Amino acid sequence: MSIDLNSDLGEGFGTWTLGDDDAMLELVTSANVACGFHAGDPAHLLQTCRAAVANGVRIGAQVGYRDLAGFGRRFIDMTPEDLFADVVYQIGALDGLAQTVGSAVTYVKPHGALYNTIVHHEKQAKAVVDAVVAYDPTLPVLGLPGSVFLSLAADAGLRTVTEAFADRGYTPEGTLVSRREPGALLSDPAIVAERVLRLVERAEIVAVDGTVVTVDAESVCLHGDAPSAVEMARAVRSLLTERNISIAPFVS
Questions:
Q1: pTM of this structure
Q2: Cα-Cα-Cα-Cα dihedral of 131, 135, 140, 142, to 10°?
């Protein structure tokens, strides 16, 4: 039994720092590195890529809306053509930085509002898929099980990787609770660790209303910007290791 642990990293900007990337990179196996549109600047992104390489962590391009002020968490009604270009641009920028430190972008994961939008929004989902195919059709894409995005990606020949969230609330339908709603975020390391263990062993997550949702995931996300992010990641890794569950990246 094996699982990948991923985290959103490289989200600092200028003198502003968000989260403890160095600590998280010692605990996760895949890094969803910001690409400068929702967060991150070139110096921060280069530093994150360098630290990922030093820790043997895979680098993924976390593409999002051009929304620094809203941290990529606001829907933007973009044309497919504009979204296609923005996604290609972001992957290419991060890939260039990664290559200077001996690595490369090895997968793509949408961020924030874009991630949630393309669960159902076919035109934007197709634009993201088309962008990945155009840039490098060997890149896997990470997304929510049952999403339109993963369905279109599979149809286009991309490898699709299903993901679950350790520290986010779920609706009975298997989607994420809006950050504006109660129960959207979890912060207790022990509770989060037990939740991930249940997910890995039984493919189950308990929704905010108590419903048990089936979630078959190859990767588990631990957000790097949460106040207790490092403590949650340590608790998850410790419990999984204790149960003899291998923690390894989904990209070999």
A1: 0.95
A2: -40
